[in-house]
From TrEMBL:
Catalytic activity: carbamoyl phosphate + L-aspartate = N-carbamoyl-L-aspartate + phosphate + H(+)
Keyword annotations: Pyrimidine biosynthesis, Transferase
Pathway the protein takes part in: Pyrimidine metabolism; UMP biosynthesis via de novo pathway; (S)-dihydroorotate from bicarbonate: step 2/3
Record-given protein name: Aspartate carbamoyltransferase
Organism for this UniProt entry: Acetivibrio saccincola
UniProt gene name: pyrB
The Aspartate/ornithine carbamoyltransferase Asp/Orn-binding domain, residue ranges: 155-302
Binding, carbamoyl phosphate: R58, T59, R108, H136, Q139, G264, P265
Similarity comment: family membership: Belongs to the aspartate/ornithine carbamoyltransferase superfamily. ATCase family.
HAMAP family: Asp_carb_tr
GO CC annotations, alphabetized: cytosol
Protein purpose: Catalyzes the condensation of carbamoyl phosphate and aspartate to form carbamoyl aspartate and inorganic phosphate, the committed step in the de novo pyrimidine nucleotide biosynthesis pathway.
Signal peptide positions (record): none
Amino acid sequence: MALRSKNLLGLKDLTADEIEYILNTAKTMKLILNSKNKKAPHLQGKSIVTLFYENSTRTRLSFELAAKYLSSSAANISAVGSSVAKGESLIDTAKTINMMGADVIILRHSMAGAPHLLAKNVDASVINAGDGMNEHPTQALLDIFTILDKKKTLKGLKVAIIGDIYHSRVARSNIWGMSKLGANVCVAGPSTLMPPEIEKTGVKVFTTVQEALIDADVVIALRIQKERQKSGLLPGIREYSRFFGLDEKRLKLAKKDAIILHPGPVNRGVELTTSVVDCDRSFINEQVTNGVAVRMALLYLLTRRDVN
Ligand code: CP
């Protein structure tokens, strides 16, 4: 099997088979990651560039380490400190990177659709590392990988996504990916932070966290994205925490073996109490490791393609 596209722009575009193919490859990559030597030749001779117009710790670093663990060259560029600050356009910046021989450009941008635009203008593969409020496909892939590792299947699982759904590209990618793999996804959050189009995705929408948590197999908490807020949407942080924050008492509504995930960075005491972040049902740290394995798999699969 091969991926149909040279780019990974969103989980909306992938089939269930393609998602499973990436995640199966990630299992092999995790073995390399867990080995003593952490080095394999899969990307020898390839060049990977991360181009980030927004802040990141996990996504950017995990792509760079993934590239290095597979013996690729890896370089990074940020909007701050580059010629973007002198007015160079996104497309011209990407074409410049392309002409230096990049095989993969990994883009994070505040504009929804920016990676799609780039993909039309460069020969390199383009990976979406988060575009505005649209998608964050590699985060959803690592979330799904983590769930499969713990629960073996997504089929029939109740996955509750709690928080700022409106601004969350993670929620959108997870809804696409998890629904394709047969999960029953529901969301809960303040009504001002619920996108109007959410009903069309087929997920259940709750306005209380309690309804979403009942018998959940997986609970995904999301950060309030203050950087994307228009005035009037955000409830006060204390009010948010009171009505939607997850503590051990609330989590008793979920199944006993429910697992807790969060894409990070976590605001302890807001969306999750510290005791929940650090409890034995929380796999937030494992998500970070799995993110490297998933990104190793993607870099490998996208660069071994001959066409498209
Ligand atoms: N989850 C995530 O995208 O984290 P970073 O913003 O640190 O990359």
